[in-house]
From TrEMBL:
Keyword rRNA-binding attributed: no
Protein name, as recorded: Calcium-transporting ATPase
Gene: ATP2B2
Domain Cation-transporting P-type ATPase N-terminal: 47-123
Species per Swiss-Prot/TrEMBL record: Suricata suricatta (Meerkat)
InterPro entries per record: ATP_Ca_trans_C (IPR022141), ATPase_P-typ_cation-transptr_C (IPR006068), ATPase_P-typ_cation-transptr_N (IPR004014), ATPase_P-typ_cyto_dom_N (IPR023299), ATPase_P-typ_P_site (IPR018303), ATPase_P-typ_TM_dom_sf (IPR023298), ATPase_P-typ_transduc_dom_A_sf (IPR008250), ATPase_P-type_domA (IPR059000)
NCBIfam families given in the database record: ATPase-IIB_Ca, ATPase_P-type
Keyword list, A-Z: ATP-binding, Calcium, Calcium transport, Calmodulin-binding, Cell membrane, Ion transport, Magnesium, Membrane, Metal-binding, Nucleotide-binding, Phosphoprotein, Translocase, Transmembrane, Transmembrane helix, Transport
Superkingdom classification of source: Eukaryota
EC number, as in UniProt: 7.2.2.10
Gene Ontology MF terms: ATP binding; ATP hydrolysis activity; calmodulin binding; metal ion binding; P-type calcium transporter activity; PDZ domain binding
Gene Ontology cellular-component terms listed: glutamatergic synapse; postsynaptic density membrane
Amino acid sequence: MGDMTNSDFYSKNQRNESSHGGEFGCTMEELRSLMELRGTEAVVKIKETYGDTEAICRRLKTSPVEGLPGTAPDLEKRKQIFGQNFIPPKKPKTFLQLVWEALQDVTLIILEIAAIISLGLSFYHPPGENNEGCATAQGGAEDEGEAEAGWIEGAAILLSVICVVLVTAFNDWSKEKQFRGLQSRIEQEQKFTVVRAGQVVQIPVAEIVVGDIAQVKYGDLLPADGLFIQGNDLKIDESSLTGESDQVRKSVDKDPMLLSGTHVMEGSGRMVVTAVGVNSQTGIIFTLLGAGGEEEEKKDKKAADGAADSHAVDSANTSLVNGKMQDGNVDASQSKAKQQDGAAAMEMQPLKSAEGGDADDKKKANMHKKEKSVLQGKLTKLAVQIGKAGLVMSAITVIILVLYFTVDTFVVNKKPWLPECTPVYVQYFVKFFIIGVTVLVVAVPEGLPLAVTISLAYSVKKMMKDNNLVRHLDACETMGNATAICSDKTGTLTTNRMTVVQAYVGDVHYKEIPDPSSINAKTMELLVNAIAINSAYTTKILPPEKEGALPRQVGNKTECGLLGFVLDLKQDYEPVRTQMPEEKLYKVYTFNSVRKSMSTVIKLPDESFRMYSKGASEIVLKKCCKILNGAGEPRVFRPRDRDEMVKKVIEPMACDGLRTICVAYRDFPSSPEPDWDNENDILNDLTCICVVGIEDPVRPEVPEAIRKCQRAGITVRMVTGDNINTARAIAIKCGIIHPGEDFLCLEGKEFNRRIRNEKGEIEQERIDKIWPKLRVLARSSPTDKHTLVKGIIDSTHTEQRQVVAVTGDGTNDGPALKKADVGFAMGIAGTDVAKEASDIILTDDNFSSIVKAVMWGRNVYDSISKFLQFQLTVNVVAVIVAFTGACITQDSPLKAVQMLWVNLIMDTFASLALATEPPTETLLLRKPYGRNKPLISRTMMKNILGHAVYQLTLIFTLLFVGEKMFQIDSGRNAPLHSPPSEHYTIIFNTFVLMQLFNEVNARKIHGERNVFDGIFRNPIFCTIVLGTFAIQIVIVQFGGKPFSCSPLQLDQWMWCIFIGLGELVWGQVIATIPTSRLKFLKEAGRLTQKEEIPEEELNEDVEEIDHAERELRRGQILWFRGLNRIQTQIEVVNTFKSGASFQGALRRQSSVTSQSQDVANLSSPSRVSLSNALSSPTSLPPAAAGQG
């Protein structure tokens, strides 16, 4: 099943269903068509066909209270009849496909053609072969044996091409595998709460079957379609399916339809699952797109060709709104389905970077992420520049060789062009052509994209160990440039283990937990009921797992703190909950960021109502008009009493860093029944029972982590919903602010007052006055957080644009997480929506893991720089040697095959060796690089040129006087097909050994002296250097004709190694020259300010285009734009014909285009142009959707 297309899967299910439909009271078809209705239509249909939702539950043989029995045969039967909750994914690319993609590389194709021509000619023996008059230009005759071996060079080139292709393909393949692994890791953690056999259990989303009773709550992403059975205040954001941004209120009698892929924004409830997998609403859209997916794929294929981030394309086609790849973590019943592709089956699961449905909203939020990541922008530019230079050099080389040969043969020696000599001449020309192509191959740094990918993939893998689950590759590198971190307080800076440490009950302020006997019995009963009933029933305190550990807190941590308070008062909340089960709660006002309180109404035995309320003390106390005194009697509570209480109780608690929560209640008469929807009247005239101070201790490792950040030039800001005193106290404990410094701590209200003008509009200049000093933003709403992040990012106040990281856990943090350069979501406390919007998930919710991410990010940047420094030295030397050698001696001293081997060690192996250096603490001692710091600094330029001078001097010395030094035959001016000379072998060997020792030099890019520092911490590096050395020995001693090598004596080897070792000494000499003196050195690979177009100017139709690429494609853009418009129109027409959810298709279009954007990011320059152009009109579909 793994490799079935969606449509096969779908039709198979149809067949299943038709045969089994009878066992349950309704077939899959009926349920599917029911789920396509909305609102009142659906209610009418349910009434007419089934009676009510209870009846549907009976037909599905499930109980609304007890859930399914959960026996294996029953679950299996349901899966067979109604399908499983996952969508078969697109197969991953096979190894052969990857090989084919690697072969598309232009330089390799040119080489292959040249090699084939060379092979063909070597087998063709013309009649005039013995005609000595043909080609004596090169002097010296060749013996017969050598003529036989003429094919070797062509074959060797082909072989080395195959080598390069296999290595590239293998790299891509292992990367893809890693991604699938990552995906499966993300989704194994994805569970959903269902009721089975009366027990509330969490099961993997793939296990959900039709008939399950699922519990939905604030922050969930629904994994399947279902009908709402019971609940309170449930509001859903259905924009991912409908495009409507308004929240939809769900109720049994008005709109009971809950659809997969939609977000629960408020409230809680239960639903009976009616459709899963391909039959759910999201699944249907996917199946419709399955057919369109094929054409899309062809387009994507062009865009993504060889793109290092190829997984993005797969996800474009597979990821359901919440689709996820699934790795064999499912029981045997499913394992058969998985065997074909070992690991990947689609799951309806909420964690995916490439969302089908959300693309619309994502696009708006993601506009700023469209810029290529800083590093990729710089690299693309650099690669294009180098490529151009290489092309020019290689063209000149070929022209000079051809001219020299023709002039020498036909003009100077006055040879006639004899027909029988033609093949010989052609062979010469092919040889020249091959030399030219070789120069090009060496000049083009195709190892760059590879180095980036390896470095990122390696980092991502290692970051998992540091509790960072990276969802978007480039987030890892952006983190290295971060200049500001806006962090939540609860759970990130603190342990999120709430405990009540102070209380104000019955007119007494207790500094520790009061003795139960000192509290009036009436007050105690009210207090226990208010806390037990007015909190989510999923919140519990369980006994500790290990002896001596703390009790486990499950659910909302603040509520856990209050329940813990009840237990500390030697009371028990369980009996209260048993007596008043969740179904009996009359009305619940759930907590949200506007109310900042939660209230629950219950019906008392005498038919009257009582409402319990809890929330932030300053908000709830404003609504209290009475307070319980020491005798448990309510007394009047006037505004001035309130002010006194704030001064004497709440502020002292807050200054100790405590969160204050007020618990209150209110009684209502049974008639007339109050108007429950009029919240303002209901949530008023309360009676305060008590105020508690909850402590959330700072995590022990946080102050140290924050100190590291500050030392690394990163400003940490705390954004919290707590009151300002609590926030300030915690900020001081963490070290975010130090007493006596000039900083700002603002409340959300004050912040808004300061940044808005008279009309209430936000002004950037006003934000610029505040943010540089702002350290704590308290009582802030999610919008404030978003405003702050956007304000800092858009600010032009500093010369570098700020790079902002944000942490968030709540659903309402989504916008800020998307807006930030890097969004961190909490793995434990975070809601699905927050994880969805994030780039990196902190699996331990800990701030110190962010510091690790910064370290890895900087390390990626440095690794690339190290690789560049090494690579460019080799490029410069190899190109100059091949070029001058060819011009002076008519033959490159480094042969095509040797060049390819050098290319292989430089590109592939060196990128592995240098890109996998582990990060060190020293990375945190410098300031962030910023966006316009050039990739190649002056120091690096000094190293590159310095080493190039050393290498060129030695190679030319060897080339022109080497035969005298070693008393061997000169290798210059050898005829075609002559045997390899010792002379040229020594040059080749010395060249490679110099590169090897220079690779050690390249480990340091900031001009450090000790290049061996920490070399044994990187086993990969040591293995590669030693391995390369071993292979080099084999090539030289036994390579023979194919590698144009003749075996060397021991003393010759010693000289080669000695010259190589000189590199290390020379490195020290270079390090002594102060960079500041070398003003003439240019830096390279910087992003100029022009190329950074702020987001506002990226208005809908204009994409940011790198200048280097712009030159590559002016015409293409218009061409693609036209094509894309036509495609969209065709797609709309087709979709209308099939009567499908037309918005789904449109949104699909926009998701695909934004996908190809990602794909472009890591690909090599020759392809980038194409894919970016493809995605230029990204803005089209939403516009079209608007018209529709």
